[in-house]
Amino acid sequence: MSVDPFLVDRQGDTERWTLNDPASRNALSDTMVLGLYEAALRAQRDPSLRFIVLDGAGGAFSAGGSLGGFASAIGQALAPGEEDPLVALNRGYGDLLHALCELPQLLLCVVDGAAMGGGFGLVCCADHVIATRRATLGTPEVTLGLPPAQIAPFVWQRLGDAAARQCLLQGRVLRAEEALAVGLVDELVDEAALDASVRARVQALRRAAPAAVASTKRLLQRLRVRVPDLRDEAAIAFATALRGPEAAAGLSAFAKKHPAPWAQEPARAGAGSDGGGKT
Q1: Across the strands, what pairs with 9?
Q2: pTM for the complete prediction?
Q3: Domain presence at residue 278
């Protein structure tokens, strides 16, 4: 029996969008990304919808991008003149991030468990983020030999330059309290109180008039013009890296639970010698 990887539940003027592939910790498959993107485009045209709650099933928000469809391309160079299908696939995820940021509704992300890589990027598009105390949020791409390409502008917008560099260039994983401190998370709650906290936050947000919210979000979105649209460049950077030797080595090491080659300290000159310059 197949499971729908993306669920939509409408209750009055509120929709709950659920990433629903617990076996993969809700990794962002092509099907899931497409479902999210189509839901965002539909929501942009729905004036009766005021609130969107985005969460993940099974004790995780999202483990990040799914490499299932990319597996055969890891470390494999393109033939001369061949068009890379990975570019269009990765750009599709960038389209999703832009569509989420352009929603006229208030978008709440609810993070319970892990929000990694692409999942971290989704969180950066939210207007309000509620996390449980067991949540962890990270951008591990560079530790795997990949650039966090599509999410980089959104992480930068959410956290500012200094904190974004700490996350994106170091592959940091933030505990819930650390994510609250840097402004990625807005509200921390106990796991048992999560559903009640989400309902209370939606109720509190009803004080804001929907047309005024939509207008304000459009104005805030205009501020993003200072950040270039990097979707094409990011897709090329990701596809190139995935086909390169670092990604092949990094992802292989990750699968084997070994450190990546670049994570090991190089041998010092003369180490292990017998004192006469011979080894």
Answers
A1: 16
A2: 0.92
A3: no
